[in-house]
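pasting input
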Amino acid sequence: MEQMKTIELLRRVQSGALSPEEALVSLKLQPFEDLGYAKIDHHRGVRQGAAEVIFGQNKTPEQIAGIVASMHASGAGNIIITRMAPKAAAFVAKEAELDYDAVSRVGIAYRQPDTPQAGFIVVASGGTSDMPVCEEAARTAEALGNRVERVYDVGVAGLHRLLARLDVLMRARVVIAVAGMEGALASVIGGLVACPVIAVPTSVGYGASFGGVSALLSMLNSCASGVSVVNIDNGFGAGYLASMINQMEAAT
Amino acid sequence: MEQMKTIELLRRVQSGALSPEEALVSLKLQPFEDLGYAKIDHHRGVRQGAAEVIFGQNKTPEQIAGIVASMHASGAGNIIITRMAPKAAAFVAKEAELDYDAVSRVGIAYRQPDTPQAGFIVVASGGTSDMPVCEEAARTAEALGNRVERVYDVGVAGLHRLLARLDVLMRARVVIAVAGMEGALASVIGGLVACPVIAVPTSVGYGASFGGVSALLSMLNSCASGVSVVNIDNGFGAGYLASMINQMEAAT
Amino acid sequence: MEQMKTIELLRRVQSGALSPEEALVSLKLQPFEDLGYAKIDHHRGVRQGAAEVIFGQNKTPEQIAGIVASMHASGAGNIIITRMAPKAAAFVAKEAELDYDAVSRVGIAYRQPDTPQAGFIVVASGGTSDMPVCEEAARTAEALGNRVERVYDVGVAGLHRLLARLDVLMRARVVIAVAGMEGALASVIGGLVACPVIAVPTSVGYGASFGGVSALLSMLNSCASGVSVVNIDNGFGAGYLASMINQMEAAT
Amino acid sequence: MEQMKTIELLRRVQSGALSPEEALVSLKLQPFEDLGYAKIDHHRGVRQGAAEVIFGQNKTPEQIAGIVASMHASGAGNIIITRMAPKAAAFVAKEAELDYDAVSRVGIAYRQPDTPQAGFIVVASGGTSDMPVCEEAARTAEALGNRVERVYDVGVAGLHRLLARLDVLMRARVVIAVAGMEGALASVIGGLVACPVIAVPTSVGYGASFGGVSALLSMLNSCASGVSVVNIDNGFGAGYLASMINQMEAAT
Amino acid sequence: MEQMKTIELLRRVQSGALSPEEALVSLKLQPFEDLGYAKIDHHRGVRQGAAEVIFGQNKTPEQIAGIVASMHASGAGNIIITRMAPKAAAFVAKEAELDYDAVSRVGIAYRQPDTPQAGFIVVASGGTSDMPVCEEAARTAEALGNRVERVYDVGVAGLHRLLARLDVLMRARVVIAVAGMEGALASVIGGLVACPVIAVPTSVGYGASFGGVSALLSMLNSCASGVSVVNIDNGFGAGYLASMINQMEAAT
Amino acid sequence: MEQMKTIELLRRVQSGALSPEEALVSLKLQPFEDLGYAKIDHHRGVRQGAAEVIFGQNKTPEQIAGIVASMHASGAGNIIITRMAPKAAAFVAKEAELDYDAVSRVGIAYRQPDTPQAGFIVVASGGTSDMPVCEEAARTAEALGNRVERVYDVGVAGLHRLLARLDVLMRARVVIAVAGMEGALASVIGGLVACPVIAVPTSVGYGASFGGVSALLSMLNSCASGVSVVNIDNGFGAGYLASMINQMEAAT
Amino acid sequence: MEQMKTIELLRRVQSGALSPEEALVSLKLQPFEDLGYAKIDHHRGVRQGAAEVIFGQNKTPEQIAGIVASMHASGAGNIIITRMAPKAAAFVAKEAELDYDAVSRVGIAYRQPDTPQAGFIVVASGGTSDMPVCEEAARTAEALGNRVERVYDVGVAGLHRLLARLDVLMRARVVIAVAGMEGALASVIGGLVACPVIAVPTSVGYGASFGGVSALLSMLNSCASGVSVVNIDNGFGAGYLASMINQMEAAT
Amino acid sequence: MEQMKTIELLRRVQSGALSPEEALVSLKLQPFEDLGYAKIDHHRGVRQGAAEVIFGQNKTPEQIAGIVASMHASGAGNIIITRMAPKAAAFVAKEAELDYDAVSRVGIAYRQPDTPQAGFIVVASGGTSDMPVCEEAARTAEALGNRVERVYDVGVAGLHRLLARLDVLMRARVVIAVAGMEGALASVIGGLVACPVIAVPTSVGYGASFGGVSALLSMLNSCASGVSVVNIDNGFGAGYLASMINQMEAAT
């Protein structure tokens, strides 16, 4: 598609409709808007099949609201804002339609009505404390148009809890396995299911959990095939990737 | 399906065809064969859509040959053996049909004729030294029935090399990005393509690369969406997961 | 016992008292209650010889009180709550009988009268600052029905303090050795006694103690036989394991 | 007992049978023999219920043989030598009765006939490569007079293999869980059994397993109660501790 | 020059204008003023071509103001104060001419009028959150008499943003590449430009970014030639070094 | 001396003045007082040539005051309290004579008049921010009866400052070198002086200083002979050891 | 310049001399030659002012010789090969003019006669063992057309050795400071000279030097201004960067 | 003394006996000889009270022999060579009088007859495997003119072995405590003796000993006063420092 655009551009130069200098400018034309504090990429939805996502951490409420407004003006909907403090959410909600969840700190601005979906993603967690990360993953996936099944508090130290939900796990198209502490959940699930498993280590724990390092290493060393890992506490990344995989069409 | 089997079993108890004691034994019957030094899982192909894979490291040539023989006797083909030393390959080749690649140290026993495939996987690498890991990934994916395009030596310090192959990258269904040193390849590719990217850090480098830790951390911290990571040098894991994703059918 | 239950179930299918489908449901029936934010395992006392323990950290006072109420309704007593903030304790105490200790932050809900015990556990500590972890261990062990002797502030830099208590140490059935800083206490005690020693590193210290890592490594490297280690600051885990060992009956 | 000895000594001073100076010497008399390169502790069997153990690593064959000879001269049998290279074993075998196992590198000098035992210890392992550590644990426990059941290659990525051996696991008095890579075996077993679990991380793995660190952290962070950990690859330590626990008598 | 001074001094001794004792004192005369809490180096401007810089962190407002006053009294202008809290800036501003920037926390006391400059330094950043470090670098370089071009929010996950500014990057005499997370910016820029690149890792990120370690390692492992690295968040150091390089004269 | 006491005791048993049982109790008699929260060692001054030192961190004001009172009652003076918060100092000062320094957080209770001393200790520091640790060292040494010369802010990046104080450094009997950041001060001083150098890494710095680890490693790797290291920020330990060395008498 | 080329290309399309399709191909034409195992960048000398450098580690002698031949055929001279084993050098020397140094393992193929140079680079080292890294830096710089002064074995533990060479250090345009162990050399030199200092940590040392980590951290934490750091043992990188800086022309 | 020399020099300038230029040269005259590969410091014996020490690691036999010859020619005796391989020792022994110990790999060239000494140093070790480091310390101290008492194999897991040697420990003027694994020896000895304790961590151990890091951290965190630490395996450094302390004269 990019190649098509380039050839089209060159054809217009060939036909004299465009001077070489104009073409150069056009080739360089940034498909983003510069707000000073941020460059917004309005074509990303086109290129990557999803709207821009705003990483809310380290941004002021005013900056978030400004980016939302700019994106909305460009026609974007279902704008995902992650790691948004309640205070920032309150501010943004005054200026835009916002659906905010305080547990995951995820906001969806200008939410679109859901499209019905065939396959689904499972978000599984080791313990109650992992819920903020789980919900970041789940809500991201939902905002991107996926059905999500939550299977929480099924840590491996009580295997019967996990086995009781085996049916839903085995029917998933992707599983997101969220766990802190020893992070064994990803391996155990990876050995049970036949679909891709995205492991998310969390910083939940104490002592030798080292802020998620223990779970991260466990997951990277998983003996189960089909498991890959994202950054500690990166629920968004897992939800986004799960959506990509769940929405794959059959190769043609 | 597992549920179906259980119900069938219980029905046979109901009908008197099976005593409760026999059923218990049957429920426990291991779907694996015990060779003493290893338990071989003959049903795994059924459950997970792929034959058993043999991790050759730390196994004697005799053990590998024994496992291959047992699997072949059970009807398996396309048996993948990773991390197999040339010496072990020579031994196994005497007792079984073996297709062995010395660079990746991957062997395929009783290789099946390839099935034509529509979509393809790209394996991209930062530098020449990453080739063993790349080939482990590529050959695994090929043995599992995928078409693979190799895009090697396109490290980010010479961006024009990578951009020159942008067309093949953008048409891939999955990209495996293999890199040592600073591991930036995954992020750069992740920002360019719209499909899942599986990042494989390699232990290539010296000094502060710390045997792959630098690349691993880089990849975990990727700002690009759709990137997940497997263990250092784990070409097999990446190839296996890429195959899972590439072969996904549309959700129904 | 589990096997007995399964056979019984299968017999009822055989006799027609149960349909195969009902049996399947029954086999899957979760031995836990789902409170939404947590799944409570009412059978654990039966399976593991102790009531459920509530890890209070990261739970709201309301959640703790809810779990206690649910467990109490199922007949549980001596419910141990660890890492409970004073504020949460005050809340729970309004709704349940609670025995709370502010140093260890351990609460016991619906405490049962103590059963006299023959053997005893020693909890030994290196310094005054380790007391919260010591008391978490000691109170856990006591709640599980053990007699505990406290031998505190006997760090190895003043060996005569430790030797003065040698008699009680040598009569113990299990010793819990709690220490931060250089963590040498476990090795020294391990060399003196003939019973299992459970080492608990604490995060007490500064500089190169790295939040307990120094003590942890020391303890893992103990040259004394019979020493094993639990997580940094994990007084509960040590108390629980010590109880298991102390209450062992002679093999028959 | 030690107190009894001291009082006896003091009584002999009181009675004039011993001068104070002689008593002082006697109080200091080392209960070990000094071979120059090592001090052998002949009373340890008495104090700790087991013969001295020889850590063979970093000792010359001559040194090992010398220590064995000295211990045997003092009446010791069942002398355990760990980490003994085959070459050293060959040398020692020329001078002493030696039962040597090349996989675990454990030798037993002057083995005593086994005493029948009631309870048993389970040694469980994640994979075939963990076998040297497993056998070090198993053979240590056997030499100390315990019955050992081996449950090998039951890693959590193939849960059905583990569940198939649940009966033997649930009847054990102590379980030694040996695993490298992600080390999840200890947590999963810890959640299933009601007896103490001794976790042994192994250095088996590659990449982010960091020579056993990943498994070690996993095990320390286990959510299952009753799990404690020994040093990486420390099969001996686990076997020794398991023996202590298995041989406990009921408290009186 | 130092040698010239020493010879001059010795000549004055030779001529009798100075006694040996006076010369010794003079040789030792400290080219700094001792304020008790700090020793101020008034000759540094001469020796190193720049005024003393005040590292504001861990200094009281009174101490900063005192040092500024002492330096100003010695004739210094363009005094750079880094890591100065707003509160300290408010205090200092009462006693001295101060140009303070709250984002970078850099203050310039007694700013001199800018000298026009031919070449320029580019400060490039991966994301909005890196701005404080960027501005510390940029303002330091400006205060030292350099022209600075800011190229912000051009992280490698959106390569077109970076390529759109390629012209300014390629005309720079030095580039300062500031990035957190995976830190790939330095490598990508290093491969595109032909001038020195100073990489500044930032502590921006979460999880496995480990407070800037991930970016630091990435940058140290850069495959691009001409890249060197300063401490995490050390914008000042990068700005200072960039100034040194930008102001180099042709070798004669 | 301890031997003398033991022989005396045994003589009294021999003479019948003491029964063996009484002697046993006496041999075990603890030379410390048990306050419940701490065991105070009144004989330490005798055994180690210095009064007990109170580590104030993690102790309540009441506990500190209690220990001071108990020690004072036993005749101790010059009682050193380290890491004492201003609030605790205010409390203790109400109940005891206290000389408190807010920078180092060191208090001396019941200070004794200084004894004149011949040799002296130098405390040298890299920068102003290291002062709290320096003063902890200096005040500890002074309280133990030593003369201390302070040579502050002589970091190696401005070598002339250090060289200007070379005379006092070279006349010292011990040097305490306190530095954060790159910690090079210890090596440079170690190469200049002929007396023992005690290196104290401090947690001062940012980024890759990792809370003092960088300075600690530097100091451990010092190429200069005669340098040894204490824990990060352990000014007390350095002052105590320096006092031991400074007060050594000639061997006889 | 790149812009000029693009405009020229577009003009040829405008004039009809080139079809759009041909232009697209031309825009994509890779300025590198693909040897299969490597992509050689023949334009790099033009773009970055230096010929391609071959990183010899992990390449076979045949591969190195092949790359040299390809580059030489394109007109390149002064081809730098780093980390080349003596065996590889012997092989390459048979097929090309090669100047090889066994200490630094640097080879220069088709060396060009030196151009006289005005300014010079100093390579300074802490100890004799750092020489391989020093020589890699020095020979790289020389091959790139710089004069190099070697100031070796001037570690900070013997400051007079360094001060004796102060004159040459102070006249340098760039200093490369190479040191292992505590790495203090960079800070001390950085405080003495007024030019950029490139610090190269080396893996020389033992124990807590951790393969160069100690020196690396020291150098990153340098308090001296104007110091930046390259990877452990990266002599080449330092030499290359030093050349860039030394050859800067005055800004115009 | 240095001041005296400088004043003398200046007086000679004053008197005309020396021109300023000659004085400058003289002030700079290096008190070392340059062998090309090393700069030998012949005055060090004078300045620091001991002959130059040769760190043999990474030096060729020829280089060592050359340095020894140069030092001997300058009148040095008792030249200590550490970390010298047997092969190098054999070479050096052909050209110089050499007393070489294969365990510690320490050689003394041109050994001087011992001077009788009053006080003594104790070298204590945790286990047999630490002996090479112990002997490096002991032989260094002996070569520097000290009496050394060896107290080996007294690890804290068998406390009675250590207590049996308490008398010699308590009479020492300095103790060097050498231990790997958990490194507790330094703390235990530090609590028993009243003299300085130099702790030497060794790389002996396996698993979580991490090449000596565990022992190093233990020792740095020692609660005992009077303990300081040198680098892992740095027996030489400990022996050198112990000699400094042991040979201190009373302050005058």
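fyi Residues 2-14 of chain D form the longest helix (13 residues).
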